[in-house]
Amino acid sequence: MTPLALTESTHVLVLTGAGVSAESGVPTFRGVGGLWEGNRVEAVASPEGFAKDPALVWRFYGLRRQAGLTVSPNPGHHALAALEQRLGDRFLLATQNVDGLHRRAGSTRVLSIHGELYESRCERCGVPFADERHYLGEPVPLCGRCGARVRVNVVWFGESLDGAHLEAIDGFITRAGKNLAFVAVGTSGQVWPAAGLVDAARAVGGHAVLVDLEPTPDYARRFHRVEAGKSGEVLPRLFGQRP
Ligand code: OAD
């Protein structure tokens, strides 16, 4: 495989999705065995679903918190952490994953655009706090200060992403211009605005690469280059870390 051409001015923006954590044993969302199989998305991942049945929603995320504590970063996460070590501020990682595995692998320039599984926040006070407890249904946790319901700090369908994250990504793309390499990894490109980053990268003259085990055709055709394979195997080679 030809490694990505990395010069002194190359800026790398990486977007990761569930596929990058698959080799750690974290299920993806879509496809056979995915988290959305057997779960109605809007029932467990929307504000309306939480209002209707908070215990069901907490059970879904409680089980994910429980399972997530037993997994570890894989070579794909480590390859990204190593690339950041090399590029410093010319690297930015936007992840749709809420599992925290990028930070556990040593990545620091990470924007968790879909939130954090191991954080909760009061529906009224709003301030997120670290929380590893796995509520598996009743009783649903309540805020110790105001008594309102506490929810997991992830972004649900119908909710907006953090504006500061979007601005940081936008700023990085603008600064990089034609020196930008955009690398999407393990994502089906079904969820916006993350799915639109490839177009923003190309609009400034950037080079776009997709790494995915089974690339989604509609998404893949928007990239210059597609590497079909497991991220744990492809990324170290793509970044020239392994012959
Ligand atoms: P998906 O489940 O939609 O897609 C996972 C992608 O990973 C697929 O394209 C697989 O082919 C690929 N894949 C699987 N194993 C892989 C491996 N070992 N190496 C590389 N690729 C692999 O997950 P996302 O695209 O992340 O949002 O989903 C995006 C968002 O939709 C999620 O953040 C979540 C979900 O609904 C919210 O919960 C708001």
Written account of the structure:
- The protein has 243 residues and is of the alpha/beta class.
- It is 33% helix and 19% strand.
- It contains 10 helices and 9 strands.
- The chain has helices spanning 19-22, 41-44, 47-52, 54-68, 75-87, 101-104, 163-176, 197-203, 217-220, 231-238; strands spanning 11-16, 91-95, 110-112, 115-122, 128-130, 150-154, 180-185, 207-212, 225-228.
- A 6-stranded parallel β-sheet has the order 3-2-1-7-8-9, with helices on both faces. Strands 5-4-6 form a 3-stranded antiparallel β-sheet, covered by helices on one side.
- The longest helix has 15 residues, at 54-68.
- The radius of gyration is 18 Å and the shape is globular.
- The mean pLDDT is 95.
- The structure holds 2'-O-acetyl adenosine-5-diphosphoribose.
- Residues 17-19, 22-23, 28-30, 34, 45, 96, 114, 155, 186-188, 190-191, 212-214, 216, 230-231 line the site of 2'-O-acetyl adenosine-5-diphosphoribose.
- What is the spatial order of strands in the main beta sheet? 3-2-1-7-8-9
**What Rg is obtained from the alpha carbons, in whole angstroms?**
18 Å
Q: Report the portion of residues in β strands.
A: 15-25%
Total strands: 9
- Using the alpha-carbon principal axes, give the shape: globular
Pattern of helices and strands: EHHHHHEHEEEEHEHEHEH
> What about the largest sheet?
6 strands, parallel
Overall SS class:
alpha/beta
Identify every distinct bound molecule in the structure, by name, code or SMILES.
2'-O-acetyl adenosine-5-diphosphoribose
| Alpha plus pi helix count | 10
